[in-house]
Amino acid sequence: FLGIVLVAINPYEQLPIYEQDVIYAYSGQNMGDMDPHIFAVAEEAYKQMARDEKNQSIIVSGESGAGKTVSAKYAMRFFATVGGSASETNIEAKVLASSPIMEAIGNAKTTRNDNSSRFGKYIQIGFDRRYHIIGANMRTYLLEKSRVVFQAEDERNYHIFYQLCASASLPEFKELGLSK
């Protein structure tokens, strides 16, 4: 079953449409009562999870630089806020900051974005019986392997290569067994 489809455009600047008051405005609303928004999609998934007691999925898809990671972040912020766990555990920050090594290995500079994810992410958020977030994990898939050996003009390889080059003079670098 395919549910709601939302088309969002990355404005490449901060807009006041993702603030806490907007989360509360969408919380408890029925789909279609408010303007289309990532919070409306998140609210619908949250309500169906609670009502039907079934797992829900939100698929965020788009081209490079479309704002997929940011949209996922806003959905997590919504869940953390309406589930009462935003202030308690800061789960959004914990999930998004859970793997800086993965970001270094999987992100690269593109012509559209200086820190573009070059891999897919599957984020699974766990809720307790009161529908509060109790944890999350992130899995990666489909790393863009061609970037390792070729980059388009004005693009870069994965961040990890430049981080390794920048740290080549550090004593810890010798322990990695990498040569110049």
TrEMBL record:
The keyword Transcription regulation does not apply. One of its GO terms (cellular component) is cytoplasm. GO terms for biological process: actin filament organization. ATP binds at G62, E63, S64, G65, A66, G67, K68, T69. Residues 1-180 form the Myosin motor domain. One of its GO terms (molecular function) is microfilament motor activity. It comes from the Eukaryota. Keywords: Actin-binding, ATP-binding, Motor protein, Myosin, Nucleotide-binding. The keyword Membrane does not apply. Belongs to the TRAFAC class myosin-kinesin ATPase superfamily. Myosin family. PANTHER family: MYOSIN (PTHR13140), UNCONVENTIONAL MYOSIN-VB (PTHR13140:SF356). This is MYO5B protein. It comes from Jacana jacana. The lineage of its organism: Eukaryota, Metazoa, Chordata, Craniata, Vertebrata. The gene is Myo5b_1.
